[in-house]
């Protein structure tokens, strides 16, 4: 709990500085791999009892607390307002909008989107370059994205 309060205090102190130029929220998982979420608007980062919650515009992403070690608001996927982060070779970048776009995935791996009740509503395979684009037309509500190594929730309004 003390760690959580320290992290929250640091976030509150750094958020005005970092969000001015932040283009990504980069999450470092417990295994050291990194996942970046592209931010199109000023994000609001908070915590629930079980996840890190990111709200940017109409998109909300919940990232499980048990899966992450740290996070940083970054301006270019490598540099923060505080220090420089080395890009991980296993870095994933997700963009939400009218489509879910992902880069840095395992080539030909499957990405699936499920409703909160577990029904699969979209699926696609990444190309040889590890990129995929899945149209979100008509999807609304809480969705779960699963890749071979990641899963997170988002809300589509």
Explain what the structure shows.
- There is one protein chain.
- This protein is mainly beta and 157 residues long.
- Helix content is 11%, strand content 46%.
- It is built from one helix and 13 strands, in the order H-E-E-E-E-E-E-E-E-E-E-E-E-E.
- A seven-stranded antiparallel sheet has the order 3-4-5-13-12-9-10, with no helix packed on it. The chain has a six-stranded mixed sheet with strand order 6-1-2-7-8-11.
- A hairpin with a 4-residue loop joins strand 1 and strand 2.
- It is globular, with a radius of gyration of 15 Å.
Primary descriptors:
single chain, 157 residues, 7-stranded antiparallel beta sheet, 6-stranded mixed beta sheet, 1 helix
Coarse structural class = mainly beta
Rg (C-alpha, Å): 15 Å
Largest sheet report = 7 strands, antiparallel
H and E order:
HEEEEEEEEEEEEE
Strand order of the largest sheet: 3-4-5-13-12-9-10
How many E-type strands? 13
Termini separation (Å)?
33 Å
Number of helical regions: 1
* Apparent shape: globular
Q: What ranges have pLDDT less than 50 throughout 5 or more consecutive residues? A: 5-19, 78-89
Q: What is the helical fraction, as a range of percent?
A: 10-25%
Mean pLDDT: 77
Strand content: over 45%
């Amino acid at each position: 709990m003390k760690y959580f309060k320290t992290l929250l205090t640091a976030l509150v102190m750094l958020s005005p500085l970092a969000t001015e130029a932040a283009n990504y929220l980069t999450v470092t998982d417990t295994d050291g791999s990194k996942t970046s979420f592209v931010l199109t608007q000023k994000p609001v980062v908070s915590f629930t009892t079980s996840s890190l919650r990111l709200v940017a515009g109409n998109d909300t992403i919940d990232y499980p607390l048990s899966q992450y070690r740290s996070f940083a608001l970054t301006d270019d996927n490598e540099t923060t307002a505080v220090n420089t982060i080395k890009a991980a070779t296993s870095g994933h970048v997700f963009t939400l909008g009218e489509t879910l776009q992902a880069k840095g995935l395992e080539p030909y791996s499957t990405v699936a989107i499920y409703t909160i009740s577990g029904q699969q509503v979209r699926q696609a395979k990444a190309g040889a370059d590890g990129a995929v684009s899945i149209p979100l037309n008509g999807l609304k509500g809480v969705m779960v994205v699963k890749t071979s190594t990641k899963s997170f929730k988002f809300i589509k309004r």
